[in-house]
Amino acid sequence: MAANTTRAELVKKIAAKFPPMSMANPTNSDLYAVLLELLDAGDSPEQRAVTAVASTGVALTGDDEYVIVTSGNTAHLVVLPNLDDVSPGKLIILEAGATGFALATGVVGDRINNVAASVGVASAAIPATGLAYCRAHTAAAGSARGWSLQYFTELGALATAIVPA
To answer: Structurally, how many domains does the chain consist of?
Structure first.
C-alpha cells in the first residue's frame, strides 16, 4: 500500500474494480489483495509534512491529523486551523523535528491553553523532537474557545504546561 493511500481511496479502488454485480465472488484474488490493503490502512491518522516559516507561518487545515514539522528556526510559525473549520474535540498531532517552532492560531481572540495566541500577538514555543497534541474546544463556562495543548517529549514524558507568550 502506498504510504499516503487513504481509507476512502481504497474504498473507491474496490468500487472501481468490482461493480456491485461482481462482488459476489469472494475468492477473486484482486478483491482479496485490495481488501488486505484496506485492512493494512488501519486507523492510522493521515499525515503530511510542513515547514514552519517566519512572519505569517504555515497554515494547518481542518483536515490535518498528524503533521511532521520541519523548522529552520524556533521562531518560525505553524498556524492552527480556524476553530470555525473544525469540530469540537478535533485532534491534531504535531511532530517536531530537530528544531522546535512557534505555534499560534490564525484568528484574533482564539486561544492556546486559555491564552490569546494569534499570529502577531503571542505563540507557544514547541520544543524540538517531541509531539504536540492540540485539541479544539468550544467556549465552556468561564473559558474562551481555543486549543488545548499538551506536549510529550521524545521519551514519552508529559512536559510542563506550555503557555503562549
So the answer is: 2
Query: 23: helix, coil or strand?
Result: helix
User: For residue 59, how many C-alpha atoms fall within 13 Å in the half-sphere facing its CB?
Assistant: 12
Specify whether 91 is located in the same domain as 36: no
As a whole number of angstroms, the distance between CA 155 and CA 75 comes to 24
Count of CA atoms in the C-beta half-sphere (13 A) of 12 = 5
Read off the pLDDT of residues 55-102 as tens digits, 9 standing for 90 and up.
889 999 999 999 999 999 999 999 999 998 998 889 999 999 999 999
Q: Pick from 138, 139, 93, 146: which is nearest to 115 by CA?
A: 146
| Residue 55 belongs to domain spanning | 47-152
Average pLDDT over residues 117-133: 93
CA angle 165, 118, 103 (to 5 degrees): 65
Q: How many residues does the chain have?
A: 165
